[in-house]
Fold Putative translation initiation inhibitor, yjgF family.
Amino acid sequence: MLIEKRIKELGIELPPSSPPGAMYIPVKRLGNALFVSGQVPMKDGKPAYTGKVGKERSIEYAEEGARLFIVNMLAAVKAYLGDLDKVVNIVKLQAFVNSETGFDRQHIVANAASELLYQIFGEAGRHARTAIGTNQLPLDFTVEIEAVIEIREND
């Protein structure tokens, strides 16, 4: 439970994993890889970060949403695995940022999620990443991120 201890040291409390909002599952395993469905910044079962980044919402606002994604993602992975110490490596994140026309700093928003993964997992938290601007996300969320995670093969 070293990873969960590190999460607590950072002042983060993992919520219960949210149930899917449509016809999908939160986590799918293929061999020693977990594919984590796009997570949105929900808190206590309610949308926490909505709106377009640019004039309507600040980069800092969107960064908070991206960090909340990490919390929600780890809750989903813990619910699936039972123990976050089974995570070997964060392989890739793909971030979608609800952006106003002309906003070109999606990579900065995604970096907030990347930095938190590094704080939690150290070098194993470093990953490949894509950051994409989009004109709309479901329910007007500010950010949605999906992940690929390597786990111990025999777990």
User: Anything to note?
Assistant: The chain has three helices and seven strands. The longest strand covers residues 87-98. The mean pLDDT is 94.
